[in-house]
């Protein structure tokens, strides 16, 4: 891994997905980190992010639509299978809003494989409650939206990216409506626009408090009707298939594990879109669904893609605190239940357990302050008062309004004896969104030829140091659409070599180890996963320090070495794959990326707050960039499974 911080005025231009480097005036390399001289260059977004911070190097969902997908899978097996290889013009990893929207467009020009880890609806999109932000009110303006986004992003956003997204957003919403997505309307017949923290105007398009589910429903319905799109559910993406073309890395598809049949399936494609979501499960409490284990970010890192801004982990300030419910859930949740930002936007007030309203003491915007401010304020209250949660009260609003705006939240709380029309909701911060990810240009292109990214897995420069509420679905829509034309162009200029599959080593299932050994490996891996999550929460949480980050780096390294040693002592081999082990290596990889990036940023900006550098430092107003790792002395989590053998 190479972690560094560089400054100067460089540009990262993506033209025909060729990565062109330019020099920088100065660079500060983190101690004991070796960076290849050719990579010590400054970077910027496609047409002009401010400057570049370089950092050290070393992945949403609800049930509905299973039968159609199973029937479609039968068709796929009969007509497209050649051994365990499948050939497509486009491979899409992820079935959230970004992956599905992209698939529907490129399917007009070729065959599309949508590869999804669980059921197609199991994505971060499906869990998004609040809505999509877009300028659709005459009193609002693109300029207002741009400024709100940049302010929330602590002035680290790429302004050109922000303007593109805010300008194109309204058309993307209209396209969704034309496809059948149904959003709430007011009595005047116009879209009902909500307001959330950090927004100066009402601009949140929503479907009650289940917006993501409605968008996912509409997109999946369209996908099921498209004869050119084939959905492969329960296919876990393992690693990209890459080769070198001179100094360029080229993506040729992806290896997957069918978790139902326990078979490895290789997808060879002309173009690959990575839309796999975030990495919330590097922390013990997250609003993300169980599938969000950072798989896409880790895969891209191993495939030599640039990674950016991983220190900016957004903790949603208001996840349901089960410990404060009148009736406690019988089993621990796999993911925290989100209490949408819109509750505060509609007038919800935060109190500590002494029923003291505290937000006005932290920020003049009170409950409507951006998420990083609210999360830190709650964290401060909990530590000062030694309490486990705070209270969010919306009960002073009319009952009918509460139930019509937040039916899903009201029903969930009522299951545990809490009536939100009469009682405050116990809430606590939880890991929610990765503002960093795979570095993308203005058309979703990466420095790996043939690989595009969209959605939470991407770092486009929109969010900067903190995502403005409801900008995530918007970004996914805009970049999924912008990636279409360059993807089509690349597809038309590419050919699939059906004999090339043997050029990469084949992942193998560890059946030869026997059930007892495999059960022991799974049990130990689950224990290690919990240990890693606790380290991340304890040392790399909402408030950080250099000492604690260094401690995290040390403990994560030791834990990873201990786990890998155990694995290989049990007979595991580097080419073996299993979902628990592969998820664990991805969690290790993403955790190290977050820690390395956090250590490189010597200031407090947006979501990254450190007591050692409590103020914003203008000279540090640069994105963090993580370069591809060296294969020398790399761990399993940072090394590609498939050693390239192409001549």
UniProtKB/TrEMBL annotation:
UniProt subcellular location: Plastid, Chloroplast
UniProt cofactor(s): FAD
Pathway: Cofactor biosynthesis; NAD(+) biosynthesis; iminoaspartate from L-aspartate (oxidase route): step 1/1
Domain spans labelled FAD-dependent oxidoreductase 2 FAD-binding: 89-473
Keyword list, A-Z: FAD, Flavoprotein, Oxidoreductase, Pyridine nucleotide biosynthesis
Gene Ontology process terms (BP): NAD+ biosynthetic process
GO MF terms, alphabetically ordered: L-aspartate oxidase activity
Catalytic activity: L-aspartate + O2 = iminosuccinate + H2O2
Residue ranges annotated for the Fumarate reductase/succinate dehydrogenase flavoprotein-like C-terminal domain, each copy included: 529-615
Main localization of the protein described in the UniProt heading: plastid
GO cellular component: a single term: chloroplast
EC number(s) reported in the record: 1.4.3.16
PANTHER family: L-ASPARTATE OXIDASE, L-ASPARTATE OXIDASE, CHLOROPLASTIC
Known function: Involved in the biosynthesis of pyridine alkaloid natural products, leading mainly to the production of anabasine, anatabine, nicotine and nornicotine, effective deterrents against herbivores with antiparasitic and pesticide properties (neurotoxins); nornicotine serves as the precursor in the synthesis of the carcinogen compound N'-nitrosonornicotine (NNN). Catalyzes the oxidation of L-aspartate to iminoaspartate.
Family the UniProt entry places it in: Belongs to the FAD-dependent oxidoreductase 2 family. NadB subfamily.
Protein name: L-aspartate oxidase
Gene: LOC105177134
């Amino acid at each position: 891994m190479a972690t560094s911080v560089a400054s100067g005025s460089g540009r990262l231009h993506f033209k025909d997905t060729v990565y062109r480097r330019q020099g920088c005036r100065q660079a500060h390399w983190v101690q004991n980190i070796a960076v290849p001289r050719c990579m010590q260059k400054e970077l910027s977004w496609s047409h002009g992010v401010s400057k570049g911070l370089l950092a050290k190097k070393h992945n949403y969902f609800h049930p509905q639509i299973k039968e159609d997908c199973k029937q479609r899978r039968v068709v796929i097996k009969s007509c497209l299978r050649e051994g365990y290889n499948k050939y497509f013009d486009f491979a899409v990893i992820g079935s959230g809003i970004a992956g599905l929207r992209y698939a529907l467009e490129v399917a007009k020009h070729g065959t599309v494989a949508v590869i999804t880890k669980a059921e197609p609806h199991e994505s971060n999109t499906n869990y998004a409650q609040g809505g999509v932000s877009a300028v659709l009110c005459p009193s609002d303006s693109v300029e207002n939206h741009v400024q709100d986004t940049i302010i929330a992003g602590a002035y680290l956003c790429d302004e050109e990216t922000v303007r593109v997204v805010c300008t194109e957003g309204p058309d993307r919403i209209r396209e969704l409506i034309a496809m059948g997505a149904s959003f709430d309307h007011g009595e005047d017949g116009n879209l009902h626009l909500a307001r959330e923290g950090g927004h100066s105007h009402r601009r949140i398009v929503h479907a009650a408090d289940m917006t993501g589910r409605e968008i996912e429903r509409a997109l999946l319905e369209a996908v099921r009707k498209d004869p050119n799109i084939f959905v492969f559910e329960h296919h876990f993406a393992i690693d990209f298939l890459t080769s070198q073309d001179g100094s360029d890395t080229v993506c040729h598809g992806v290896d997957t594990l069918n978790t139902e049949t326990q078979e490895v399936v290789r997808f060879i494609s002309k173009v690959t879109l990575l839309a796999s979501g975030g990495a919330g499960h590097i922390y013990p409490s997250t609003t993300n669904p169980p599938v969000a284990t950072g798989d896409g970010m880790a895969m891209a890192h191993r495939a030599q893609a640039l990674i950016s801004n991983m220190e900016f982990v957004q903790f949603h300030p208001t996840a349901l605190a089960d410990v404060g419910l009148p009736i406690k859930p019988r089993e621990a949740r796999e993911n925290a239940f989100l209490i949408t930002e819109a509750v505060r936007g509609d007038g919800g007030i935060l109190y500590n357990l002494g029923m003291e309203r505290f937000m006005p003491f932290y920020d003049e915007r009170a409950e409507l302050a951006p998420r990083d401010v609210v999360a830190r304020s709650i964290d401060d209250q909990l530590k000062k008062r030694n309490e486990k949660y705070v209270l969010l009260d919306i009960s002073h609003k009319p009952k009918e309004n509460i139930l019509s705006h937040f039916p899903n939240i009201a029903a969930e709380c009522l299951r545990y004896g809490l009536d939100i029309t009469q009682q405050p909701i116990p809430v606590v911060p939880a890991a929610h969104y990765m503002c960093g990810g795979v570095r993308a240009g203005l058309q979703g292109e990466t420095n790996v030829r043939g690989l595009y990214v969209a959605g939470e897995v991407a770092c486009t420069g929109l969010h900067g140091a903190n995502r403005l509420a409801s900008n995530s679905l918007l970004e996914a829509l805009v970049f999924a659409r912008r990636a279409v034309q360059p993807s089509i162009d690349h597809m038309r200029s590419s050919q699939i070599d059906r004999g090339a599959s043997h050029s990469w080593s084949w992942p193998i299932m560890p059946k030869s180890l026997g059930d007892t050994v495999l059960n022991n490996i799974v049990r130990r891996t689950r224990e290690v996963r919990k240990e890693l999550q606790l380290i991340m929460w304890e040392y790399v949480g909402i408030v950080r320090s250099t000492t604690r980050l260094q401690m995290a780096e040390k403990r994560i390294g030791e834990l990873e070495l201990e786990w890998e040693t155990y694995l290989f002592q049990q007979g595991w081999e580097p080419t073996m794959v299993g979902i628990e082990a592969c998820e664990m290596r991805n969690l290790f990889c993403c955790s190290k990326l977050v820690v390395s990036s956090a250590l490189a940023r010597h200031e407090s900006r947006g979501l990254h707050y450190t007591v050692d550098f409590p103020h914003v430092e203008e000279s540090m107003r640069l994105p963090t960039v993580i370069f591809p790792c060296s294969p020398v002395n790399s761990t399993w989590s940072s090394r590609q499974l498939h050693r390239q053998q192409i001549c």
